[in-house]
């Protein structure tokens, strides 16, 4: 019986490949939240990824395999951490 150490719990492996700041391939994509020529936001196995640039367009998107390919000028790659919710007391005692 084969055991896959790369893909535990059904989670797709996450990888970024950027070539010449013109082609980006992302694996482990779970959902694309939004996209336009200047910004693409996607949920991946590694967290929420924000890609900024110019003339961005999606060349390939397959949520079955979790792969996304972008073309255009990539200027920024950023993982966005979810906002932490404040407790009731922190909101109440905020100045």
What does this 3D model show about the protein?
- This protein has 95 residues and is mainly beta.
- The chain is built from 1 helix and 6 strands; from the N terminus they run E-E-E-E-E-E-H.
- The chain has one domain: Immunoglobulin-like.
- Strand 3 (29-35) and strand 4 (39-44) form a beta hairpin.
- The radius of gyration is 17 Å and the shape is elongated.
C-alpha geometry: elongated
Determine the number of helices (DSSP H or I, runs of at least 4 residues).
1
CATH architecture: Sandwich
The radius of gyration computed from the alpha-carbon positions, rounded to a whole number of angstroms, is 17 Å
Count of extended strands: 6
Query: If strands are numbered along the chain, what order do they take across the biggest sheet?
Result: 1-2-6-5-4-3
Distance between the amino and carboxyl termini = 60 Å
Task: Give me the CATH fold name.
Answer: Immunoglobulin-like
Quick summary of this structure?
This protein has 95 residues and is mostly beta strands.
List keywords for this structure.
56% strand; 95 residues; 1 helix; mainly beta; Immunoglobulin-like; disordered N terminus
Secondary structure blueprint with pairings:
Blueprint: E1 15-19, E2 23-27, E3 29-35, E4 39-44, E5 47-62, E6 67-80, H1 88-92
């Amino acid at each position: 019986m084969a055991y896959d150490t790369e893909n535990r719990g059904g989670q797709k492996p996450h990888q970024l490949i950027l070539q010449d700041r013109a082609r980006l391939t992302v694996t482990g994509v779970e959902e694309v939240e939004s996209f336009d020529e200047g910004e693409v936001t996607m949920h991946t196995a590694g967290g929420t990824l924000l890609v900024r640039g110019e003339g961005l367009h999606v060349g390939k998107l397959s949520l079955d395999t979790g792969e996304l390919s972008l073309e255009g000028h990539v200027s920024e790659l950023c993982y966005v951490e979810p906002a932490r919710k404040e407790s009731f007391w922190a909101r109440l005692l905020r100045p």
